[in-house]
Amino acid sequence: MSDRAKILIxxxxxLIRDALAFKLTKDGYDVDTAEDGEKAILKIESxxxxxxxxxxxxxxxxxxELVKILKERGTDAPVLMLTSLNSETAVLKAFDLGxxxxxxxxxxxxxLSVRIKKLLKNAKK
Amino acid sequence: MLKFFTETYYFLLALEPRYKIVLFLVxxxxxxxxxxxxxxxxxxxxKNSVENRExxxxxxxxxxxxxxxxxxxxxxxxxxxxxxxNRIVDSALYRKSNxxxxxxxxxxxxxxxxGEAFNRLEMLYREIGLKQIALDNxxxxxxHIKAKAINDLSTMRMGESLFDILQFTDDDNQNVRYxxxxxxxxxxxxxxxxxxxxxxTPMSEWQQIRLLDQSLxxxxxxxxxxxxxxxxxxxxxxxxxxxxxxxxxxxxxKGELRKLLYHKDEKVQEKAIETARDLAYAECLxxxxxxxxxxxxxxxxxxILKAMGDLGGSKEVGFxxxxxxxxxxxxxxxxxxxxxxxxxxxxxxxxxxxQELSEKGESIVKHILDDRI
Lengths: 125, 373
Known about the structure:
CATH architecture of chain A: 3-Layer(aba) Sandwich
Oligomer: heterodimer
Structural class of chain A: alpha/beta
CATH superfamily of chain A: Response regulator
Strand content of chain A: 15-25%
CATH class of the domain at 219-312 in chain B: Mainly Alpha
Largest sheet of chain B: none
CATH architecture of the domain at 219-312 in chain B: Alpha Horseshoe
């Protein structure tokens, strides 16, 4: 098994998914993608991820529901919400449900990298 | 074969006229259906080929764009990447639509990415020639092509295109000029708002809100053109000037604001009163008394009573109390009572109720004093 941290990207926008996967692979992570919450849950059941990056507005299962389900199941992986919703209500709801970090689109890829490093460091403690 | 056709011909000839008509209709419908099927199939195949081409170009170009956006490219590598993209989109027949696909991709990334990636995308947009295409579309395109070009240039923050965009701020086509006005404020800031000085065409309320939203980034800087806008012949520009004054606290044109309280256009007058109220311009109270007497419009009178509630002192308390007693219009009595309550003068309202000066006034006052409502 590889030592590299494994990241799951959940986003219904293929361009964003691909761009994030490209960037994070370049940063040295193992990256997996899912196009909605349902597929993400299936992947999480069969694989272990160190970080989950999720959009909020997605078909079938929204990002909020996904976080809620993951936290109820006791998934340890920190969840970073990456969304176009930038209202205070969305941020509060995300953290309330158990999200570990929140970023709004448009986002800086370099800032995302730093936040991922920080989340991984905190997770190891 | 000839025999078959001859027999069919004579058979048809021998038919009764009504059967001939039915047969003719059936053949015509079959032919029409066949033509429709051919058209649908051709259209579907054309659409498929366009979609395939789009997918192919996106598939080939995406990794190069990602490489540019997420890697530390030097000048040479950047030029090589541009050459690669040019080779992919180059086509004698489809270059224009291929560039449109590329344009869509870059704009999409630009809307979603920030920081250094954002700047690199802008550089790519310039270097690959998309900026030039947008500028060419401005000169030659139909209205929707022009509007799209302006929107793209402002989304991609092509500040150097500001002069070209400013030519369209008073365009005959509403969509083109609205996009140009928005782009001008976005790219040129408050200096570019000079186009409002002599704008002839009206601005919708939505357009005013869009421009105001862009102007909010100036925060509380002094916008010295506000006075010119308040003196404009174009009432929508005057209203926008008042919005700027109100939302960006532009106190320096109070003299013009005072004049607008007497404006002949009801909308302008109403906005002027609202602005005076929001800017706490108590010096204009004397003018408001005058306007109250001069106007017959209930909306304006209501705004004045509201302003008195926010700006007034003891003199206005007396006026509002008198209004409750003498005004016949329900809306005005109600507004006066609300203003008194807002001023904290429940005592005046209670004493009015006790004196039973008018039945209508009394029931309204009772209603206003009820804190459950």
